Amino acid sequence: LRALVTGAGGFVGSALVDRLRSEGRYETLVLVDVAPPGAQGDDLLSVVGDFGDPAVRDRALQQPVDVVFHLAGVMGGAAEADYDLSRRINLDATLDLVEAASSRGRRPRVVYTSTVAVFGAPLPPAVDDATPLSPAMTYGAHKLMMEIALADLHRRGSIEAVTVRLPGILARPAGGQGMKSAFMSEVFHALVEGRSYVVPVSPDATLWAMSLDRCVSNLVHAATVNPARLPPGRAVTLPAVRPRFGDMVQVAAGALGVDPEKVRYVPDPVLEAQFGALPPLEAQAAIDAGFADDGDVVGLVSAVLGRLGRPA
Amino acid sequence: LRALVTGAGGFVGSALVDRLRSEGRYETLVLVDVAPPGAQGDDLLSVVGDFGDPAVRDRALQQPVDVVFHLAGVMGGAAEADYDLSRRINLDATLDLVEAASSRGRRPRVVYTSTVAVFGAPLPPAVDDATPLSPAMTYGAHKLMMEIALADLHRRGSIEAVTVRLPGILARPAGGQGMKSAFMSEVFHALVEGRSYVVPVSPDATLWAMSLDRCVSNLVHAATVNPARLPPGRAVTLPAVRPRFGDMVQVAAGALGVDPEKVRYVPDPVLEAQFGALPPLEAQAAIDAGFADDGDVVGLVSAVLGRLGRPA
Predict the structure, then answer these.
(1) What is the tens place of the pLDDT at every residue in B60-75?
(2) Angle CA(A79)–CA(A85)–CA(A88) in degrees, nearest 5?
(3) How many angstroms away from the CA of A160 is the closest CA of chain B?
(4) pTM of the model
(5) How far apart are CA A64 and CA A72, in angstroms?
(6) Which residue of A152, A273, B222, B308 is 20 to 30 Å from B115, comparing CA positions?
């Protein structure tokens, strides 16, 4: 079996590649990323470049692939700031990639990472599988358009589409990339290093969060789940732990033996509304299909700290 | 004011152009169609060609336009048969056209004709504004993707988007174009000419139907309605009369003085399921925004026969 991973050098992509290699399910992993991969091996075929470039797609798909893990794309803030770029990458090139993968004689499975941003803002008092989709950002709009395109290509028999809508994945690498939600990850790095940190939301802020390891497990599951377990739209909102921010900090500080008072809360009303007011989420369709969250705040924090190299 | 009409020579387009000219709201109408327009006049600027051709779009948009009526596209059966064509025209070129219209210094209103095919099949026992959208054909999928793109461009301030989802429009020109739903129109042509006709659905079949004149009135309204009256998704399902097929034939035959027994019913189960089982439709958002249907089966038949040149 051969799998293609776009964004293979990224935060989620590199962890996914590690897991796929350790599980040994694929003889060859084709890694597409704008930067050369850190990993090397006979089982890896690296294609360095932007998947928006047709030549890069051609190189990546010289041999038919059985699975495409499509992680690359223009993220939320960047897509909002540059509509043309988001259209070119998140829409046109993504559809081109999927069509090219489906034209090579197999019916590849496409694992597509969508986003809870398809729900838009403000969110209703509770979110479940019947909540209307009404994106409020270009990023979410283009992701939702691709969900629909993939469901149609699945119906036509061109691909097997499995779309998973990701919540916030923790903890991203320190330093952030100017992401406004970086504080959710930075607080973990600060606690691990025993530094004090100012969080721009209140202790009562609620998140939808998933550890990187759990995210990778869900992506691996997406590549093997019986397609009949997915709803007709081929998309599921992944379940997520919904911690109170203050509780998450308490648990992490306790596990690390750090004074939780090192974290102070200076809420920014805009960030609190955007990232700290996530309502209860009932992700039954995903649970029915075998996807899972980290269980509870303790499980979440344990998985996050485990990955950061400290005992939880 | 300047308006652009794509598909200006088509069934709906030519009737819309006639109405717009008679109302005199626009100084210039730019008519885009693959065939030269029948109408001529100082108020008309004809661009003959496929709007999927960038040169055609450039010619059509040499001057900024205030309103775009986008009617052209690849219809349902053709889109299903040729995915690549539907992607190129119904998705890529449509988005290119809207972006080009919005880049000329104004914030044009875009009146986009979508379809009830966005609801998919089979339909639930009743359809309203909360019914989930789950297209079951490539045509509906690409229309829904464009609805989302237009809502996003509206939110960004690039355009004023008004999307109307059309039901079946009656009566299309005789002869059909191989459309499987052609019988809905053909039965009117047969009755007007006193011919007998075999309908491939039962008398109990239920349709969602709108006269061409009412459709044009709704498109004209879409160009002037206060944008604040539309829901955030910028799309409304137009209200439609839901006649029993047998009643529609009875009313038409009575108005024409023709024996209704000239119409026989030989139901095809596939066509009955696809075109003859439309559930009750509650289109409240459209009604709240001032859109209307033909009232009842008598109003529908009267408007259809009026357009065919016979007293109703």
Answers:
(1) 999 999 999 999 999 9
(2) 120
(3) 16
(4) 0.96
(5) 19
(6) B308
